[in-house]
Design a protein that fits this description.
Shape of chain A: globular
Number of helices of chain A: 16
Order of helices and strands of chain C: HHHHHHHH
Oligomer: heterotrimer
Strand content of chain C: under 5%
Shape of chain C: flat
Chains: A alpha/beta (470), B mainly alpha (222), C mainly alpha (225)
Distance between the termini of chain C: 40 Å
Helix content of chain C: over 70%
Largest interface: A-C, 61 and 47 residues
Strand order of the largest sheet of chain A: 6-7-8-3-9-10
Strand content of chain A: 25-35%
Structural class of chain A: alpha/beta
Radius of gyration of chain A: 24 Å
Helix content of chain A: 25-40%
Structural class of chain C: mainly alpha
Largest sheet of chain A: 6 strands, mixed
Number of strands of chain A: 19
Amino acid sequence: MRAVELNNISFKYNEKAIIFKDASFFVDYGEVVLVSGHSGEGKSTLMSIISGIIPNVNYGEISGDVLIQGENIKDKKLNYVCRKVGIVLQNADSQIINKYVEDEIVFACENIAMPQDKMQKQINIVCNLLKLNPKDKTRSLSGGQKQKLITASTLAMGQKILILDEPLANLDKDGAKKLMDVLKSLAKSGYAIIIVEHRLDVVMPYVDRVYHVGNKNIELIDDKEKYLLSQIKKVEVNTNIVDTKELIFRLDNVGCKIKEKEILKNISFDIQKGSRVVLLGENGVGKTTLIRIISRLQKATEGKVSQYIDEKFDKKLYSKRQWFKKVGIVYQNPDYQLFMPTVRKEIAFGVKDNKEIDDILEMFNLKEFENTHPQSLSEGQKRRLTIAAVAGYKPDVLVLDEPTVGQDYKVLQEMVAILNRLHETTKNTMITITHDARCAKALCDRAIILKKNGEVFVGGPEDVDRYFGN
Amino acid sequence: MQNEQDDITQLLENSKGNYQEETKAESTQLQPRIQIFKKFAIKDIVFLAIMAACMLVTGGIMPLVVHVPVFGIIQLALALQFSIFPTIGLMKVRKVGSVFFMSLCCGIFFAFMYLPMFVCIMICAVVTELINIIIFRGYEKDIAVAVSGAIYFPFTLPLLYVYYNFLYTFNGQEGEAVNAFIGANAGAAIGISAAVIAISVLGAFVGYIVSKELIRVGVMKK
Amino acid sequence: MAFFKKKEHINPLMAMFVGVTILIVGLIFAKTYAASYFLSGAYVLLIGFGYYKSCIRILPAFIILSAIFFLAFYYGKNSLIAGVTMVNRLGAIFVGLIPGMNIEPICMTRSLNQLKVPRAITLGMLITISFMPLLREEIARIREAMKTRGAGNILNPKVFYRAFIIPFVIRLVNISDTLALSIETRGFSIESNNATTYKKETINVVDVTLLLLVIVGVVLLAVFK
């Protein structure tokens, strides 16, 4: 009996959004299966169909057979399906409702009426397995630990089919390897594991089979290696490397503590005016904190950041509004920075001249959407719009936090080209945080690598390759 | 590695049990019993609870103003958030009982800050729901949502007036509520009450406009 | 015997009852000097019953506010009892708040579940209280994002409202959708009544003693007011 079997599945949200047409898919017990594919092509839909979220919570028109442990789950309640298939969703932070780790783990067990004595055992087992302390407070956990907590909570329910949506999103290399080891061990013990993940280079050694979702189909990949190479293709580097001596920022022994926790310590380096800097490092080394300090969203608790944009910003009382016009910041999540009713108005918020607005719309390939509501755009378009809106101020420095996260190759290529074109036209200084091996080099004149022990390595584009292990 | 394998073996062992079979498969189609009263889904409860959390977060100022002897000062401090968030909640969850549920979720914590306010909020929620049922027979119409969002909080004004009277009457100093909280200058109390109503209407309007926009672009689904 | 068994905290419902009793009685008798003794006694009692951390935590705010209100009413009405009344009212609120501050939301949820309160309601309450820190973070992040877009000026309410409310509601909707899905896929059901409880909330000798002592205090206050 197969763990999961989808036979001739067709699914559409509406007439315009047809996701699958006669697609088939299966997973056996004892294997780890990777589901890969571009954003918006149907990976999440596939997960939702297997876990019963479709048609119970999200609606659409579905036909074909969905068999879980040999049983057709058509017309079955989610409450029934979830006892057979566990699903670990993304954004763990939004899913935690309890103060302590053990209570969060046991929440799912209570729901399925697990006897009290078994619950205690489950807590101990899953905490051992995923290296969690049951007495820890959930809000004090890091992003990676929170993701592990939600995984533990699902695992404690005892289903033998597990779906994990981007489980490595907040984990560093070590953490990712450890989690994959656990998942592989679970599979060896008879579990069926289905993973949706963008970090193919990390997961590929652990997976038994790979499916590619796209073109309304679910295709079984024969050659894993070839597929991996095709998916991690790098964006070509075709920009002149800037090497000036003029500085825009100097960091002297910068340190930062938050509630006694040391985030950064003795960080010193320079940023040259007009250069493109890529900030690299594992999760949790303090990259975001560092760019927050540079862009004055947060204060350093030690050391000094000198700016050479304008002397007026060295005064105690300076205009924050003027500062943020000179230092443009683009958040990872565009939802925080978009608020106007149309794309054009979003850009017009910072730019008054109509000709300039048109130029920006053209440059960011947003002209055709100028009267569209920003929230109606795709994720990639929203990111472009946020950058366009911030770039409208013509900032001397553009700070980008993971501008390409979760984007497929085509969108990524477009984004990199736009950023580099913007850089060449405006001669801005561009500071980018990224984990994306595909584009880091293409956005880099200088690489700054933060290490866990607090060391900082400053190098060139060639060090980007070295960092990503090529 | 051996430990890991042991843990997994234990997990498999401990996960066995009849409790997993207790829920029987049923049809996914849930029909409302009566047109006015519809069943709440988990997503409704979660959204309303988050709206209540917003009201609670922004209502934290209450313990600091409850004893400022100006009639309506509590309502003045809370009117905006207590009209915006209930309206947004109702725009998404258009079910009778939504206002009551939001009030209960945040009210229970208000009970620790200022018990009379909890009682007032709960009574107001019931009154708002009743008015809605009588006039609009549910929250399907936008106007029903906007009106409910606007009238919900100002109802606490007369209730709090009754409470002040009760408290002081109990102390044997009848009529002091008027002196203490409305004071010699009754005009101020009337002015503040009018301001509370105006802010509530504005809040409901803002909540309605924002929700309408987000429903139109598909971010917020009814 | 379970009644005499040591446990980590006062029963949540008992704690809530004690808090509310102190609040109501304190407010009702606020105009008497005896209320000051009652509230002081309750404060000491709560320290003794393990609430010392919260007792210390509320002290600075209570002292500052009491001083302000006492002086304002003492000099404003030229009456000592007017000042004391205000201090008593604030005292009733602050002391009444102490037991509630210490209730873990999950313990309260489990107590209510044991009383067969519908799980939809207890889940709603749990989410409301658990998401307050997350919402505060979200508000701070949006305020920050507003500054980066040059929309942080509260003097321009039209822009301020859009730049704050729109991203905030979008975040709320996203958080709510993810959480609802997560809860549902972790087996929560509104209709099902057969959920179990990991740690049962019991009433023991300490809970009953605290309640009795508070009742004695109330009786003494009523007699000697």
